[in-house]
Design brief:
Order of helices and strands: HHEHEEHEEH
Radius of gyration: 28 Å
Helix content: 10-25%
Number of helices: 5
CATH architecture of one domain: 2-Layer Sandwich
CATH topology of one domain: Alpha-Beta Plaits
Largest sheet: 3 strands, antiparallel
Bound molecules: iron/sulfur cluster
Strand content: 5-15%
Length: about 180
């Protein structure tokens, strides 16, 4: 057949030699590759028993922090939502009522605080913008799910659990 590029090659199917027909050299070569990898440092981890160390600057799931007395730090100022380039944060503010001083540190608090984790790009700008030391990106991974609604993280998933210290290991803040 005429070739426009003049680079075509006629491929000839070579007859296999006697040793190739035995397949033993090929099997032996394959085994040698396996044995070589057997003694090499493994590239994989036995997750979840073994966990990979993250870089110091790793930014994972958010946490809304409490103060030393267990009160929520967030004052629903909205600066995190304004600074979010992905428009992932939605806040509904409410006024603290008498007798709620032990729950919320400031006179205004977030009645609802939601982060759409499908939009979030984990840039950390919300953390940078927060004047109340309230929102942090932790080392925790945001859990996977097949349901999109599971990725709307409300206060139930974001607020630091009561009784945990301000900086427990799992909630290690990105910002030191
Ligand atoms: S980490 Fe970035 S993208 Fe995610 S909620 Fe905060 S500001 Fe928005
Ligand atoms: S997390 Fe911080 S920036 Fe965001 S609303 Fe609360 S106090 Fe304001």
């Amino acid at each position: 057949m005429y070739s426009l590029s003049k680079k075509s090659k006629v491929v000839v199917k070579k007859e296999m030699t006697w040793s190739e027909k035995l397949y033993l050299p090929a099997i032996f070569q394959g085994l040698m590759i396996t044995i070589r990898h057997f003694f090499k440092k493994k590239a994989t981890l036995q997750y979840p028993e073994q966990k990979k160390e993250f870089a110091a600057v790793y930014r994972g799931k958010h946490i809304l922090k409490r103060d030393e007395q267990g009160r929520e730090n967030c004052t629903a100022c909205g600066l995190c939502a304004v600074s979010c380039p992905a428009e992932a944060i939605t806040i509904v503010a409410a006024e603290r009522q008498k007798g709620e001083e032990h729950l919320y540190r400031e006179e205004k608090y977030a009645a609802s605080y939601e982060i759409n984790m499908l939009r979030c790009i984990f840039c950390g700008l919300c953390e940078e913008a927060c004047p109340k030391d309230a929102v942090y990106l932790t080392e925790e991974l945001a859990p996977a799910s097949f349901d999109r609604t599971d990725f709307i993280f409300g206060k139930d998933k974001l607020v630091q659990p009561l009784g945990t210290s301000a900086h427990p290991k799992t909630y290690k803040p990105y910002k030191k």
